[in-house]
Specification:
This protein is α/β, with parallel strands linked by helices. The chain has 13 helices and 17 strands. Helix 2 links the parallel strand 1 and strand 2. The chain is globular. The two termini are about 40 Å apart.
């Protein structure tokens, strides 16, 4: 990895585009290598960071005007290029692309609109507690350049990958997991099709001997997959429900399916059914993912604030048997909420509390359904008002769920 990276940047003018967690990680490693001809920084906000005396910093609205003055640009995830990548004279790459170029044979790459953090962390939990030498990195919070010193030829790398990390990547992991693709990030992508293309980079550069584990509801085009494909659903699990084995903190059918991906992959590493179930029972789910917060005045409260899609919110509502109130809304990314409206109208919910921009749009959609339902629809300006309202309207013995679909 170090040799590959050194050869890429040797004597070149290098720019780090975006100076968040990953940008800082790139800067530290490239500074240590000390082989760049130049190493400069570009970010919308001027970073509060101690740089070398010769480092040039670009910031403000014109921070991306300098790209073609450089040989190589390391783009951070989430930075939106104002032009098509092929219109730039410089080579635009990323931590993820260089990392996969070096280690793709050892990587289990996991992506999907929803569930990727749960699957990545559960897979790491099962494998690392079953004698498999592995590390967890990527979109889950650890930049890949920060873990290279922990990797040898026998290390299995569990790598969570976002659409932003995959968007311009020309390498795919030998083992790829595509959980699902729903409408999301439409504020970043021009269309749902562009978003799907970014996600599909998880497998588009695989070899015929590589493996793709795919959700059984993901639509693949004829001829676009060169590798072996396995479509996954929860039927492959050695149990029918979490309740049937007991002591599992995960909830819902969608998490059963997430477990199925972990089960089939860990089985390839020799993990028995008994061992898998035992480790599933000791797994602690990540925060903000159907997380039980506590009970107040006889009402259970659940935080599913990681939910940014219609599908994930529907799954969350289905997962909590006694849910009476849901809090929805946030930043409006242009998602189609009509399927959610139809579900909510048929659901067991009594109270639908809406907030912020997308909540206002959902509220207006509900106005078109006037007289055809018995739901209490309430619009609140912000989360604090929504939480207070939820306490006032939710009955003792039931549950309140924050799952914004935004």
């Amino acid at each position: 990895m170090i040799e590959l990276l050194s050869n890429i940047v040797k004597g070149k003018k290098v720019l780090i585009l975006g100076f968040g967690k990953e940008g800082q990680s790139t800067y530290k490693l490239l500074s240590r290598l000390n082989t760049c001809g130049r190493l400069d920084i570009s970010d919308i906000k001027r970073p509060q960071y101690r740089f070398g005396p010769d480092t040039e910093i670009y910031s403000g609205d014109t921070y991306m005007d300098c790209l073609d003055s450089y040989d190589i640009v390391f783009k951070s995830p989430g930075v939106i290029l104002p032009k098509d990548i092929h219109e730039y004279k410089c080579k635009i790459t990323s931590q993820t692309e260089v990392f996969l170029a070096a280690y793709n044979r050892q990587v289990i790459g996991i992506t999907g609109t929803k569930g990727k953090s749960t699957v990545s962390s559960l897979l790491y939990h099962v494998m690392s507690n079953s004698g498999v030498k592995c590390i967890l990195a990527g979109n889950i919070g650890t930049p890949v350049f920060d873990v290279i010193e922990n990797i040898d030829k026998d290390t299995v790398i569990v790598l969570e990958l976002s659409c932003h990390q995959l968007e311009y990547c020309n390498y795919s992991p030998a083992t790829a997991v595509l959980l699902n693709i729903y409408e999301d990030h439409l504020d970043h992508y021009r269309s749902f099709e562009d978003y799907k293309k970014a996600k599909k980079n998880i497998f588009l550069h695989q070899r015929p001997t590589d493996t793709l584990y795919c959700g059984d509801d993901v639509m693949l085009e004829n001829g676009e997959v060169a590798s072996r494909v396995f479509f996954i659903n929860s039927d492959i699990l050695p149990f029918k429900s979490f309740e049937s084995i007991g002591n599992v903190k995960l909830k819902g059918q969608h998490n059963l399916k997430n477990c199925a991906f972990v089960y089939i992959i860990s089985k390839n590493f020799g993990v028995s059914d008994e061992e898998f179930i035992s480790l599933l029972q000791t797994f602690r789910p990540l925060k903000h993912r159907l997380e039980y917060i506590g009970t107040k005045h006889g009402v259970e409260y659940f935080d599913d604030s990681i939910s940014t899609t219609v599908e994930s919110t529907i799954n969350a509502i289905k997962s909590i048997e006694n849910v009476e109130t849901v809090i929805l809304g946030g930043m409006d990314r242009g998602i189609d909420y009509n399927p959610l409206i139809k579900f909510l109208l048929k659901s067991k919910l009594k109270n639908i509390i809406l907030m912020y921009e997308s909540g206002k749009r959902i509220y207006e959609l509900f106005q078109n359904e006037a007289g055809s339902h018995n739901k209490k629809i309430i619009y609140c300006s912000d989360l604090q008002e929504a939480a207070i309202t939820a306490q006032n309207v939710t009955s003792k013995g039931s549950a309140c769920l924050l799952s914004p679909a935004s």
